Amino acid sequence: MTASDRSGQGVARVAALLRAIGSRSDAASTTALATDAGLARPTAHRLLSAMASEGLVDRDNKTGNWSLGPELYLLGATAAAAYDIRDDAQDVLDRLSGESGESAFLSARRGDETVCIAAQEGSFPVRSHVLYEGIRFPLGVASAGLAILSHLPDRDVDQYLARADLHAKWGDVHSEPALRARIDKTRLDGYSTNPALLVEASWGMGAAVFDADGRPAWALSLTGVEARFQPDRRHFLGRLLLEQAHELTRRLGRRETAPRFP
């Protein structure tokens, strides 16, 4: 292995640990993060300690658990001006949750995953708790990732399915034939449906949001209990998602093409 290969591997490991921490709602142990990142525990501990010295992660002195550090907040604040679309999307999320009563979410594509970046709780008292800000799923697993994956070109879908082993972690319902069938259905409907494939009796639906180049870069989704996603109501929810996804796409396209002044 060349020095360049070793450097690349080191960066990938650090990134995997940061994603593992960021995907959790609470601080996590070294062992848990090593498992999530696919690393040996000694390797994870060494990298986490090095990141702590740079302020990228913090360690609780009592529990020994790790969380994201202050330096990431500062870096994130700088990047937010270019990448954060939550202000543009907030009223869209409000409208989705207000008109449906379900919890509404905004997810962003990050490589082969989606990460939930904003949420708005619905008024219906019984909720699904599958999604929360920071959680990540592979493309095609949750409704947001299925909506994004379904709107990629066929070549990109084929390449992704060739390298992603969803069946191993997520079971038979995420085999390639099953996923391709859901992709076909999503393309036909325009919106995706996840019929309790992650958590029993917890449904989700999603619609892709496109960037200025027409690429599916984000997704809006609604989640709730199965009783709220009966066939007649799914049509209403799908239409609502598509309307709001179109509005957010239009809004973001206008923002990206607007002149910028110093």
Automatic annotation (TrEMBL):
It comes from the Bacteria. InterPro entries: GAF-like_dom_sf, HTH_MetabolicPath_Reg, Tscrpt_reg_IclR_C, Tscrpt_reg_IclR_N, WH-like_DNA-bd_sf, WH_DNA-bd_sf. Pfam families: HTH_IclR, IclR_C. PROSITE patterns: HTH_ICLR, ICLR_ED. The keyword DNA-binding applies. SMART domains: HTH_ICLR. Residues 71-254 form the IclR-ED domain. The keyword tRNA-binding does not apply. This is IclR family transcriptional regulator. It comes from Gordonia hydrophobica. The lineage of its organism: Bacteria, Bacillati, Actinomycetota, Actinomycetes, Mycobacteriales.
